[in-house]
Amino acid sequence: MPLMKSWVDSANDANHPFPLNNLPYGVFSTEGTEPRCGVAIGDMILDVTAAEAEGLVALADYPLFDVPFWNELMEEGPAVWAALRERLIALLSEGSEERTKVEPLLVPMESAELHMPFAVSEYTDFYAGKNHAFNVGTMFRGPENALPPNWLHIPIGYNGRASSVVVSGTDIRRPWGQLKSPDHDRPAFLPSRRFDIELEMGAIVGTPSDGPITVQEADDHIFGYVLLNDWSARDIQAWEYQPLGPFQAKATATSISPWIVTKAALDPFRCDTPTREVELLDHLKDCGPMLYDIELEVTMAPEGKPATTIARTNYKEMYYSSAQQLAHHTTSGCPMNVGDLLGSGTISGPTKDSRGSLLELSWGGKEPITLDTGESRSFIEDGDTLTLKGAARGDGYTIGFGDCVGKLLPALDDPYER
User: Fold this and answer.
1) Among residues 93, 167, 280, 367, which one has the fewest Cβ atoms lying within 10 Å of its Cβ?
2) In the predicted model, is pLDDT for residue 418 greater than 90?
3) Which residues make up the binding site for substrate (predicted)?
């Protein structure tokens, strides 16, 4: 599919993340206004709440965009999702007869503040990237025991905290927790010393389910995708994770990019999951290309200094797709809700410079990385800003997500002080 031309000139740049082919969904405000739903088109945001109020967008007998989140649209189902996309393309395409009505509803991106694009119902994070799982397992158990016995059969995951999911640009506070060094008999309550990121994609459930669903049904239920940073306190995790897995180590924050890129926008970039080393059981078998060719990048910038790209990888490196993760999640009869968020797990490639976490990049702190500034890092230091970037490259156009940014603030001197 080639670039779709828009009368919004900036949307026609081959390298711009928000062409007419994309039309991602977000929530924005401007000075003196309340947050409202918007669609990114080039350097502008179409105020969809206003467009609905003026009758330019009419998808139901009742308003869908009178609230500052996209869950109301999700609840209408895939047919309405498709109808909105079709209508937006008609309004914004080159030669649109309705340009004069739409143009006053455009807001410059530079003057807008972006907010959480949807209300997160529940959050589950997976451990579904093989390179990452192998690297971490090798560090702690050796290469011969790197993958747990179940790993090639099911996408492993844990239930996280929806309350700690935040939008890009939100500062992250270094957490306190129980830490135990190998040379100490007892743990101590201290700020985390090994704070880390995990480069992930997040899939948003748009259709509820109440019982097991197939992989194909799961793919149909996914509304769209965001970049996701699963901030991780590795030292807290090392002490707490046996026998039930991550808990407080993952509860500080999970950052997501501000724009929901719809499945329709990503369809041209579908690709297959890797060749299976062990045949999956029937209910998890692949039923078509359900991963996406999305280039991913992580940068780190010490406070007041330029950023260094520390990793480059691709979403197609995943072993399990989001559809397989969602289908597996439902096998026990677990209901899934509109607005549920599924983290893919860390997306690492096969080379050192494609590892999606500092734990891997520094090999547990034993091999610090060197930034362009000359400074070295094993884990994140106070004042560092981490940025996740993602883009799919089409024929004369780019599908972008908007950066996922977070700056690490120092731990509180007393976490209980009010």
Assistant:
1) 367
2) no
3) 127, 141, 237, 241, 346
SS3 83: helix
Residue 230 annotated in ligand binding: yes
Q: How far is CA 410 from CA 82, 196, 414, in A?
A: 45, 14, 11
Burial 361-394 (b: 16+ CB within 10 A, else e): bbbbeeeebebeeeeebbbbeeebbbbbbbebeb
Q: How far apart are CA 151 and CA 199, in angstroms?
A: 20
Choosing from 75, 91, 115, the residue where a domain stops is: 115
| 91 and 128, same domain (yes or no) | no
Is 184 assigned a catalytic role?
no
Mean pLDDT across 342-348: 98
Is there a cis peptide before residue 415, judged by omega within 30 degrees of 0? no
The arithmetic mean of pLDDT across residues 74-99, rounded, is 98
- Ligand-binding site membership of 305 (annotated): no
Answer yes or no: is 254 a known binding residue: yes
Output Rg (C-alpha) for the chain, integer angstroms. 22
* HEC-encoded secondary structure of 28-41: EECCCCCCEEEEEE
Domain CATH code at residue 27: 2.30.30.230
